[in-house]
Amino acid sequence: MTGEKRRVRIEITDGVVYKATDDDGKSSDPYVQIGECDDGKWGKKLLETPVQKKTLQPKWNYTGETIIKMKQDIIIRMYDQDTFFDDYVGQYITYYNGTTNSMELKLSQNGEAIPKMVNATVNIKFTDLGSA
Ligand SMILES: [Ca+2]
């Protein structure tokens, strides 16, 4: 049912960054955040991976648990960690449908389902752990 709170395990295994954002033009320090999406905007942060240093093929092998409402829009977004201001890489906007699901997300500037320009990909698995 829409709005029902579900406990969810989220595994963020790895990904690819297509455009290096570090000053040397060769690498990035990527990490991924997942948050609630309210009216197309970033809302409450739910999870965040550690940073993978100096790589365009990050392997986070991260597992976290959170609570997401059914049909709640969520944003999966990637940043490159920098000393002062982290660079935004891209995002994907979807919603939680209550099923166990592995997918490769294509992250873009605006997070649309079929982006014209893909900035990065992220492999992610949602496992539904029941009502919360
Ligand atoms: Ca960096």
Automatic annotation (TrEMBL):
It comes from the Eukaryota. Residues 1-109 form the C2 domain. Coiled coil: none annotated. CDD domains: C2. This is C2 domain-containing protein. It comes from Planoprotostelium fungivorum.
